[in-house]
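CHAIN AND CONFORMATION:

***
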Amino acid sequence: MKNVIYNLSRFVFGVTLLAFFGMGFAVVFTQAYALCVGDSALVKRIADLLKDNSAYVSTVCAFAGYLCYYTKPAKKKSA
């Protein structure tokens, strides 16, 4: 059972980490582009669109990482 929880939490951690990084890069690069172009509405729109979702994803990622850390299988000792 511990291995199933570990594998599931590791998968969830990997997926949510990629989603969190993707959203973060999207926010940063879109805001940088909007700053260069001078479109202040785009800065606000992208922040409003992704801010809450990236916070939710990062929370799930943190809990999955915590579960992954505490359910990691012990290494077998060689005799």
